[in-house]
Amino acid sequence: MQTQRNRGSTGAAGKPRVAVIGTGGTFAMQARHRFDWIEYGESGVVRSIDALMDEMGGLGNVADAVELVPVPFRALGSTAITPADWLALAKLIRLTAAADTGIAGFVVTHGTATLEETAWCLDLLLDLDVPVVITGAQRPLNTAGSDAPGNLRAALALAQSDAARGEGVLVVMNNQIFAARDVTKAASFELGAFEAPPFGALGRVEASGRVVMRRRRANTALRLPLDLEALDTLPRVDIVLSYAGADAVAIEAFVAAGSRAIVSAGLVPGRPAAAEQAALARAAQRGVVVVQSSRAPRGEVPLQAFLEAAGVLAGGDLAPQKLRIVLMLALSCTTDRLQIQRWIDEA
């Protein structure tokens, strides 16, 4: 289905106005040579979104159809982003939308290592009428075959499209459109590194700039009773990876460090290693919220008798890193485990 662009909010030239927020990452980094596709971060050069857009020059018919509104934020490598940055970014987007009701959509450029986590956290924190689209790059702008201009062009097309409304925060990479809940980075350096197992992409941005949505997001947006403006920090939540021979050391260390919740990224089909099971039960008895998930990319963990007996919640089909974010936000509202389980089921 071809979409119509959102014409409800226009700038002086009668064009939709799209806010562009740069957060750093590969998208903003300057490589040392044309084929510096791996260690480009060693250059130490990270450019602002204004400078990047100037360097890119024209982005064709898609960019010509919108008025770009650069919004300053901090420049970060995505391996350095923290929950405090998520909160600051969500507040900036909400404040910008409230202060400038002419904004038709938002594009956030982001490093790819944690792009899926930032997108999911924003999806849970924001409830806006306008689209929010996250994109990034696998190759810096000044390298051969950089995907930065194409990804920004696709994100601008999506951010001004009516089809993006009501779909929550969206991710667009390599012209594929993904729901924040489902998307994950599945490869280190490939241009098509992002996938959404097992559901797949929602649609794509064609080479012409046309937005095509083939399906809608599977779940309605989870809305937690949060006061975003009052949130300055999020509770500590950790992930424990299961593997053959895993023991209680990591679990006990996280409890000692003050974890409010632990996600067990269990062996497939969602069970901890034998030596971990008792430690997870002990953590639950001490008041730590423990959630069982699976390390499998298409894992699902339903509620089962062995989990209920240990006081452990079931993670469903959410990836461990996505569960962690749900728990951080949920624990900012309540410690009621039944309510937290309901929110996990609804996410």
Automatic annotation (TrEMBL):
Residues 236-343 form the Asparaginase/glutaminase C-terminal domain. Gene3D superfamilies: 3.40.50.40, L-asparaginase, N-terminal domain. Keywords: Hydrolase. Residues 17-215 form the L-asparaginase N-terminal domain. The keyword Acetylation does not apply. SMART domains: Asparaginase (SM00870). CDD domains: L-asparaginase_II (cd08964). Belongs to the asparaginase 1 family. This is Asparaginase.
